[in-house]
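Sequence in, structure out.
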Amino acid sequence: MADYYSVLGVGKDASKEDIKKAYKTLAKKYHPDLHPNDKEAERKFKEINEAYAALSDEGKRTNYDRFGNTGEQQGYSQGFGQEGFGDFSDIFNSFFDLGGGKRARQGRDMKVEVELTFLEACFGCSKQISLTKLEHCSHCEGRGGTGEKNCSTCKGSGRVQKQFRTPFGVFAQQSTCSTCSGIGKIVEHECKNCKGQGRIKNTKKVTVQVPAGVADGMNLRLSGEGEAGEFASRAGDLFVELFVAKHDIFMRKGDDIYVQFPISFSQAGLGDAVIIPTIRGEVKMKIPAGTESGTTLRLKGEGVENVNGSSVGDEMVIIQVRTPQKLSAKQKKLLEELAHENKEKLHVEKGWFDRFKEDYLHA
């Protein structure tokens, strides 16, 4: 197990604010949305969250400092595993009910889908969505009532301790207080608005800020915009999955934009200056003389800004030389003259077909 202090880059004497600040900095740096398909960044992000979960909770941090773990997976099997007893905690679980209620749960995460136009994905945008979810009751601030006081069962700790006498000695077991669900507080007067639940269902407008450069299938995470937790505990997160519509002209590969641009026979042969459409507007581009169909020309910096803001892609212009279907008499005559001239040129250059036979047919 990695050292949680080293993971967050703080000392063992770091304050809660120092730990929170370090977590926010690292979580933003290694967030999966900023590093799609990067397994190392995903592993690092999970490690950072695990470290913060341990060090931001006073009880877990105390256990970690004293025993090297947070106390959530401590058992009593040490020394008995090889004697046929299996996991020692399982022995006691089979004789005693070591439960005692559940701790107030964090709010449920939610997921929504948002469709973007091609250009909205390129440049970013603001989207407003409507969510129906459980929210903390505004009358009691999610606490279920008024007249809050320490729970008489657990004396405000949220935990109760039981002792068991066994052939191996007396063992103490801590569990969540069933009276207050591990909160440590109870209310004297139940809230009529939420009937003591601390949460009510409500429809809310949420604004999603979509950054420039997002791609189809990418997810955005809005912390705390999921459903409210039980008894004023933390709300879940909202995950926004993005779907990007196709464009009539442009196609995207990574941060580069691709567009097919038709030119005439004469433009291909003689070259020309043409106006090319880009996602930012029209740009003038030179077509070199002798350009063949299928040639790709690059417009530097006319692609999509990377979602990390570190670079900008290019626009790749694929040239399509159009063969004329209908010709006027004058156009036909000019093409015939061109064909005749090309034929004469081939005859002047000593037998191109003879060289072809020599080089290839008799190779």
